[in-house]
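Reopening closed ticket. The problem is back. First fold of the pair:
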Amino acid sequence: ARNFFDKAVKSKLRLNQFGGSAGGPIAKDKAFFFLSYEGLRQKTSAPIVESTLSAAARAKAVPAIQPLLAAFPVGQYASSDPNLDIINVNAPASVGENSGGMRLDYNLSSKLRLYLRYFRDQGESYQTQNSTGSQYFTSVVPQNAVISLNQILTPTVINETKFGFNGSKTRVYGIPGSSPNANISGMTINLSGSVALGGIAGQTGSAGLAIPSGLIRLSSSFNGRGAPYTNFSESFIDNLSVVRGSHNMKFGGELRALTIYNDQLGGTTFSFANVAAFLANQPSSIAFNGDLSAKSPFTGLSGEAHMRQNYYILYGQDEWKISPTLTMSYGLRWEYYQPMHETNNKNVYFDMAKGTIIPGYKGDWYSSSKKNFGPRLAFAWAPRQFNNKTVFHIGSGFYYGPGQTEDQIQPEANDRIGRTITSGSLLAYPFDTNQIFATYNIDDPNLGYQPRAYAPGYRLPERILQYTASVQQELPGNTMLTVAYVGNQGRNLFLRSTTNKIVSVGMNATTGAAIVNREFGNRFAEIDYKTSGGRNNYNSMQVTANRRFSSGLSMGMQYTWGHSIGNSGGSNEANTAGNPFDFNADHGNNNFDIRQSFNMTGLYELPFGRNRRYLSHTGAAANFLLGGWQLGGIANARAGVPIDVLITRPDVVYRDTRDGSIYANPVLVNGSPVTTPVINTLGGGNSRNVRRPDVVAGVDPYLHSGMGWVNPAAFSIPLPGTFGNSSRNSLVGPGLSQIDLTLGKKFPFAEQKFVEFKAEIYNILNHANLANPGNVRLQQIIPSGPGASGLQPGQAFTTATAGANFGARTSTVSNQIGLGTNRQIQLALRVNF
């Protein structure tokens, strides 16, 4: 622990931020301009603590695996597991960014005003993924522009017409770690039983083990070398504002056309259930994916995908001042999100009802409702009897959204070669992908193709009902207190699960090995599917107090108690269902559930200098140096974020017919099998790997000493064919607290010209804010046969059987700037003239 904290507080940040702006008239009272530029150069390092192969483990590797050992870093000290050592590294990262913008305003006449605004940003970053040194490179070039014409039709009627463009050119690539003796370009080695790498909200890709990789996570279920894509939208917007007596009305509409050019560069992922399986060259699966732009064996098309979609929006609203003390706001908004489509029919649609694939499908991939009417209603009331010092607010409204784009492009992403191998002679390293590509036959009954699908009832959009009620009270000392209830109900939210499940298992009479049968046959592997119908709700109490700047002091305080719970967090927050037959089994805390948060801010003008309490008669030079200083601070604290404890379980296990014991392999006695294969996990497959353990009743799930946080003895292995009863996000991680200070002053050197100095100190106490444990995935290590080590279903885990670093807090939050950083000092100068 001491070694870890010593490293953690020595994380480094070097930040240079610079820029400038200028503006003024081009022609007096006619044309104006404004230009701005900002540059950023940032280099950081943050601690990463993971498990890696020990020397003892490396000595056990079979010859085929030995070339890969160099891809794993050498540990610095031993763990409780003899196969694993601990490595603690400071992982470098860098960001470079240049951004700039311009605006031109032109008065065509007293009733017509035109403006043009353009902004462009260009950024590049290198981020280290894990202790192996593998990185991902990101280049993003967002830019947007808008041209707007304001028309004053009458003194009470104003119309605004706008055309906007918003686009981004993004390139993301994986960079292998520096292992000169191990070439892992285009591949990933995962020893935790998972397939997808970490990086997508709501998913857990790492079990705290080093993952050598030349890939990055391209989607929520597979990895690849990179993802070049370009997306942009074009919007035509018109808004009409009308003031009539006590009514302030606004009407408008928008047509937004979206375009996406997308490619996904594939790779190969070797997944091993545990370290022993890796050393013996026994992968649980090999998942490989071709490039999306390569020639497809399904549609015969090549090149990047070209997708289009339109949004249609109309609205009307009115703010009606019923009386001097009562105002009502009401309105109606309608939105329609056209289903996404690929312009060249470069897609492969999977029909879940029939279990077949349809290349070049020309129908809608999913349904989208046209009945998305969102009424809004709110009241504000300031009763006279409270002397205009008390205001009541109440309001509610329906809101709609299409969700994240990834959830709408599955058929497009299917139009590529892909295969997941879970058995047979090919299930080993090395793996010749070129041979597989050359002989790829879409009619092969053992293809292992892994399309992603939509359930027949998948329907957009997601719907949220939001409502709030609050009271504001003016207090002495220029302070305003607000107490509010805020809540919402989410409906028709995004859900996901798996199909093509294992439905039966036979046995080879000679070897006792399992013969697996899937819903749609073995032509397909496990199929990830998406649907709608999820539900959640949020309820909170929010208290805010603000003191306006007066007598040299301003202050603010906010406290929130809230709870977000449901069977889905919605788009980008929905895990694969732990039970593929019942989405409600995942009813639990949402990923963003934070029960309590508190922050307080203050800004104080130090009482020194001319016209102040102290040194009020000082000279000009002394006042220049001592007067006008401002000291500010921010205190933040919040409860922990959720922890989802998962377990890796093999699809099939073997039950001993003599005593009911469970083993990982068939057992033969006198040449005949005495075990029967049984389905262990009804979902089958590991691509999403969201499986839950059973909870051991009466055992505290938290450890209360040392670096440990989650107690492995609180969990056990479920019985074969059952689903764990641990609920989604059932535990909570460490809280966070931080105090920041700022000190600043303006140094005038001429009328309306000054130099502004500011010093900012983040986390001035250098408090170590520990992140959630990186390893909260248990491994079902089943005995290979009678007398072998392992755990039987129902047996609780121990520190030894849970694996190195399970449930341990091994890293800080490690934000580079702001909330969650280690202590950092920034100095800034700004010249205003």
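Second fold of the pair, where the issue appears:
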Amino acid sequence: SLVNALRAQVAQEGLPRITFRCSPYHTNSVLHPVIAHIQQLLGFEREDPLDVKLAKLERGLQPYALSVKDVVPLFAALLSVPLPEGRYPVLTGSPQQQRQRTLDALNAWLLVEAERQPVLVLWEDVHWADPTTLELLGLIAEQVTTSALLTVLTFRPDFVPPWPMRSHVTPLLLHRLEPPQVEGLMTRLAGGKRLPPDVLTHVVTRADGVPLYVEELTKALLESDLLEERTDHYRLTRPLSDVAIPMTLQDSLMARLDRVPAVREVAQLGAVLGREFAYEMVHALSVIDEQHLRDGLTKLVDAELLHQRGRPPQAKYIFKHALVQDAAYQSLLRRTRQHYHQRGAQVLETRFPELVQTEPELVAHHYTEAGCAAEAVGYWLQAGQRAGQRSAHHEAIAHLTKGIAVLTTLGDTPERGQQELVFQVTLGVSLVAVKGYGAPEVAEVYTRARALCQQVGETPQLFQVIRGLVLFYLVRSQTQPALELAEQLVSQVDRHTEVGPRMLGHYHLGMALFQRGVPVEAARHFEQAMSIYDREQHRHLAHTYGIDLGVATRGFLAWPLWLLGYPDRALALGQEAVTLAQELGHPFSLVFAECWLAWLHQYRREADAVHERAADGIRLATDQGFPLYRAWGSVAQGWALTQQGQLAAGITTMQQGIEAATTTGAEVYRPYFLALLAEASSVVGGGEDGLRLLDEALEVVEGTGERFYEAEVYRLKGELLLMQEIKNQKAKGKRQKSENTDPRPLIPDPHAEACFLKALDIARNQQAKSLELRAAMSLARLWRGQGKQSEAHKMVSDIYQWFTEGFDTKDLREARVLLEALA
């Protein structure tokens, strides 16, 4: 009623109205309500040649102040209209970027329409919207505050909008009708004539305020011989108890269909096709002669069970309510229903090939409901792959999951195993895109895929499956299984000549070794991968593997190089990675390079550079939808703020970043992050908070085997223990002085010295010269206070003299000052 009132008012004032209808048959069809509306708006006909569709698209966009050269390629891709070569710029960027640009263009189109004149936009049954449509709605909700755009969304109470509530959004809960409203609706259906009080009371009681039930009961009574029409009222011809009145809404709807048996089959055919269906489709499916089909559809429209748009053969029909469709559908015998679905799928294949290509999930649905599992699985896979290629990963997950469920109903054969393997690998890619490598679902999919590989035998998917598991274990910081699988990966790819897998294998093994605290071997594998890389020959692999391997190896090699005592070489490589990523224009590679360079600057203790690089990384990660890198960038940015004097803000930002990373399932680098947070927290809250965080970090180290920062964690623990002991002894000394007793000399905590020695030992075993230098300086300062100045000088001098570069870095400058003080 609300929507109809708005439509009437808009029609009266001559304002434009845009309606998007979501359908239960298309809950995972990417932007289905939007595509359906645009096709109707542009006047697309099924038989239109592609050049005619393109002309209609170009003509339809002309009235709008939009960049045609930018928007036409996006809308053409959305509508599956190929563009002639050279006529428009080729779409560039990742599928995710193209998807975001398409959503931005659709949003801009609505806003431009609203600039011309006020517009009413109706989104019906949003509870059935696909995830990409919901994302578009969120974008619209953010940007309509200053436009003359009234957007009305209808949805069921159990649907929760995924976008935040804002001041310009007004929720209206439509309750069941109250008795006076029921009576008013009944009187309107009766043409304004009075109805007997017994009839009013009966319907009010039975319908329980459900508008559709009120309508159905009232119409059933008006169409019966129970009521006799007079000039201004109806009168009962006999008691209500003498008439069988449907007890439920479902019974009422079925009774309506039974009263017009000649058209029940037409309604059933339409119900099989969906809430909305085209005349040409129901005509192709029906065995009824065309005249009887048209008559049946007309009667359903006259009975207000269907709404009609257009005239046959271009007409489209919409069931008045989803329950009407459901009643017609449920009235079919199971065998008949399956038969109709099978015929529907076959009709789509033979007569609507363009629909099969753009909406393979529709054919998959019909074959699934028909019980034709073997025919359905191929289309579910095609639907999942198509959605994934468009970065509509939520929809892809739904299609692929459904396909796997259908596939399990087939016999356990090698062919089925091979099919499921393809499904699982494809599903893994979309799950990673949506949830990140650390999600448990990712491990489940790749573990199942690995078992299938063992069943199937030698298969090209094995590399991708092992790689998926390696990344899961790396992100979860389960370093031992990650290392074992990475070694298998290298062993496998070294037997083959494919360059991409070889580079990727050594890259992943380098990552695992680095986490385990073996920087020398890690650097060797990164260098081996980097030596294979050729920018021009291998740049296309970024879209295959998700990251450019030239960028990845340079960015990651910088980390072990810094540990090994080559800060200048590390910095040069990190900067090369950023430059290469910028030149290649690959979004994820650039986000990676910026974040990794930010962390390298943190190792070098260069707060301003960390802040700048982290800000760039956060901005890119936010724009491109990489939540893990946004979280990591926040940790780096928070550390920079603490070094720039904004301790409280910096600590909060670090804590939020660590928490955000954990929500993605990532545990990697947690000891490192906790160590940074401990160092900052000790300044604000004293050593207790910092020591608690460092103890947590050491527990994680022991549990995961992630040891690359272990030496620094022990060194920081020693510093905080020393700070706490000195603080306690000073407080004790003040009390002794106030009590006129001689204060005792400061005695450093022996546990602090043990931590420094432990840090020194770990760093030396790992050949991590940069961390060895830090541990040596901390221990030397302690020894100087104990009178061991000579030993302290020798220890620092030995490690300082090893370095051949990086003398302008903060660590080496402090070492030089310390050596002068110890001389």
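Update: turned out to be a display glitch only; the data is intact. The CA atoms of residues 63 and 459 lie 54 Å apart. The longest strand covers residues 119-124. Please close again.
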